[in-house]
Design goal:
about 210 residues, two-stranded antiparallel ribbon, 7 helices, Cytochrome P450, oxidoreductase activity, acting on paired donors, with incorporation or reduction of molecular oxygen, heme
Length: about 210
């Protein structure tokens, strides 16, 4: 994969293209460009962020629909509910659990002093179930108005958020067209072991044809 990425970066240097990788290689146009290692790290981050999180989202969504056939029935009756469903799955059981960050300067948060250079783990999953922000946070609510922060916030909002929601919408539309429901089988679900992302590596499901 590293060789493939390097080849793609070299090709954009020789023959610039107006795509995402071309923009990364070209930089801002004022001489402020990323180093080769920075480009490589960013490309890997975008690739893994777009693949692993999407597959875990669909797994978590299917598991919820297998447990809540009433929700699936509502989605089949009204496709307009899909955006709310996607937002609530991301809040209730999103693929991103935490994000490690390095503190760039000394700071005090809620009376706790954090020194420059310290590594902190931001628990996105915990924030998405903050009872001061979400009434009954442990309940899946298809009509919930407030959305979570699975895609970040402000200047750090995920660059792939629009694509991720588009993929989720298209994938769920296809499932709604083809199947009347899902059944979780009795075999044990095998979860990945990570503080960063969360989702099943193995999850047997029976699809019920429409």
């Amino acid at each position: 994969m590293k060789r493939y990425m390097q080849q793609a970066i070299d090709e954009r240097r020789q023959q610039p293209k107006d795509d995402l990788l071309g923009l990364i290689v070209r930089g801002k146009g004022d001489g402020d460009t990323l180093s080769n290692s920075q480009m490589m790290a960013l490309c890997f981050n975008l690739l893994t962020g777009g693949l692993e999180t999407t597959s875990f989202f669909f797994s978590n969504a299917l598991r919820l629909l297998a447990e809540r056939p009433d929700v699936y029935a509502q989605l089949r009756a009204g496709r307009s509910l899909l955006p709310k469903f996607i937002d609530e799955v991301l809040r209730y059981d999103g693929p991103v659990r935490g994000l490690p960050r390095i503190v760039m300067q000394d700071i005090e948060l809620s009376g706790v002093r954090i020194e420059k250079g310290a590594c902190v783990l931001l628990l996105v999953a915990s924030a998405n179930r903050d009872e001061t922000e979400f009434p009954e946070p442990d309940r899946f609510d298809l009509q919930r108005e407030r959305t979570g922060i699975s895609f970040g916030y402000g200047s750090h909002y995920c660059i792939g958020a629009f694509l991720a929601k588009l993929e989720a919408q298209a994938g769920l539309e296809a499932l709604l067209d083809r199947f009347s429901g899902f059944q979780a089988l009795s075999e044990r679900v095998v979860w990945n072991r990570s503080l960063i992302t969360s989702g099943p590596e193995t999850m047997p499901v029976r699809f019920l044809t429409a």
